[in-house]
UniProtKB/TrEMBL annotation, chain A:
Organism, as annotated: Tumebacillus flagellatus
Protein's name in the database: Imidazole glycerol phosphate synthase subunit HisF
Family designation: Belongs to the HisA/HisF family.
Organism domain of life: Bacteria
Pathway: Amino-acid biosynthesis; L-histidine biosynthesis; L-histidine from 5-phospho-alpha-D-ribose 1-diphosphate: step 5/9
Keyword match Transport: no
Keywords: Amino-acid biosynthesis, Cytoplasm, Histidine biosynthesis, Lyase
Localization in the cell: Cytoplasm
Catalytic activity annotation: 5-[(5-phospho-1-deoxy-D-ribulos-1-ylimino)methylamino]-1-(5-phospho-beta-D-ribosyl)imidazole-4-carboxamide + L-glutamine = D-erythro-1-(imidazol-4-yl)glycerol 3-phosphate + 5-amino-1-(5-phospho-beta-D-ribosyl)imidazole-4-carboxamide + L-glutamate + H(+)
Signal peptide segment: none
Keyword Cytoplasm: yes
UniProtKB/TrEMBL annotation, chain B:
Metabolic or biological pathway, per its Swiss-Prot or TrEMBL entry: Amino-acid biosynthesis; L-histidine biosynthesis; L-histidine from 5-phospho-alpha-D-ribose 1-diphosphate: step 5/9
Name this protein carries in UniProt: Imidazole glycerol phosphate synthase subunit HisH
The keyword Cytoplasm is assigned to this record: yes
Gene: hisH
Species in which this protein is naturally found: Tumebacillus flagellatus
EC number: 4.3.2.10, 3.5.1.2
Domain annotation Glutamine amidotransferase: ranges: 4-196
Subunit structure: Heterodimer of HisH and HisF.
Catalytic activity as recorded in UniProt: 5-[(5-phospho-1-deoxy-D-ribulos-1-ylimino)methylamino]-1-(5-phospho-beta-D-ribosyl)imidazole-4-carboxamide + L-glutamine = D-erythro-1-(imidazol-4-yl)glycerol 3-phosphate + 5-amino-1-(5-phospho-beta-D-ribosyl)imidazole-4-carboxamide + L-glutamate + H(+); L-glutamine + H2O = L-glutamate + NH4(+)
SUPFAM superfamilies the record matches: Class I glutamine amidotransferase-like
Upper taxonomic lineage: Bacteria, Bacillati, Bacillota, Bacilli, Bacillales
Amino acid sequence: MLTKRIIPCFDIKNGRVVKNVSFLTNERDAGDPVELAKIYEEQGADELVLLDITATNEGRATMLDIVRRTADQVFIPFTVGGGVKTVDDIRELLLAGADKVSMNTAAVKTPQLITESAQKYGSQCIVVAIDGKWNVEMQDWEVMINAGKVSTGISAIKWARECEERGAGEILLTSFDQDGQKNGFDLDFTRRVSESVRIPVIASGGAGEKSHFYDVFSEQGKADAALAASIFHFKETTVTEVKNYLRERGVSIR
Amino acid sequence: MIAIIDYGMGNLRSVEKALQSLGADVVVTGDPAAVRQADGVILPGVGAFGDAMENLRAQGLVAAIQDVAAAGTPFLGICLGMQLLFTSSEEHGFHEGLNLIAGHVRRFQGDFKIPHIGWNDLTLHQESPLLQGVEAGDYVYWVHSLVVEPKDRGVLLATTDYYGEVPGIVGQGNVFGIQFHPEKSSRVGLTMLGNFVELVREGVRA
């Protein structure tokens, strides 16, 4: 039976993990994304997401090196995102060894980017990240871009459908109402999007405890995978603990 | 020496690095002569079936692959590389494959999410050197929208279930195919690749 996936995510700036990760105490390894990736593989993570938040060209070159080293040493799939703007950016990341590339703002501004990259490299490696926020006037979730700073007036559900039509292989759905709140994933948002498309939906934003993963995988959330960052980095719980918890409750887990 | 065939269909780095981590001597090559000389051959790849066959033909690799397979060289197709082993595919029209194993490649049909993405468990159908140390119920990582339908069920070594039976590993003599990604399946996948490396070593010793 196909299992629900648990996906740790980390932000990388100039080649280092941005937030201090509490269980990397060895000074040499602290902040090294590749060391962190290896630990998560050990813990049973099903996939990883590496987000590059570097803005400079030097930083981007460093990121390609991180991707190469991760591909050399980590034998689970990983997605790379952050600042992806062109088909060439995608090509570079895939050649460096990324299994999938996620795009966000650039896809909203130039939807053709999804179509072109999916045709060229296959849907399996094209992830569209959608940041959504409930808009009272629209009575709908609205797509946010530029890391949540700019609203677009676009319905996130309609946008998710368009992404699928254009060839996206997966949707990485972040609720900006829940992100950083630690009181659970946005279940309604996740379920509505998951029911609207026929590609897998990765829920993101709001994980604060083990039960939140159970909820988002249930009929209330209908997520295919769930992503989290700080809950794993700060050792509030581990991937292993979350998976054991879910397995005990009958969720299909690797 | 194991040759990983480079024919312009996707990134081969992961397969190369996984084999190197197992101590194998590998070369990534698109040269038919190098493929003919190898002790073992891996055909990886992602993308469209028709394009893949066209590239193999253009690079003069079809005959080389058919010859080494016939000569008994351990041969492993991974993902699209497994689908190419079969007679034909219906992906974007009708395409002839390498025809090393009789059967057809068809799209998933039904009201469920496609591609089949994620970790799914294996049902083992028969013993095989490729499955040493692999147990029923072990999870491996899948990403695909098409499935193979072998003419003879006797070639099925392992399957999974995704709205029906999905062939995961096939084998016929020295020719093997793996639909999922062993190079992305952590310990279980590396065990299988290690078994293939061992098969190649045995072939060299024999």
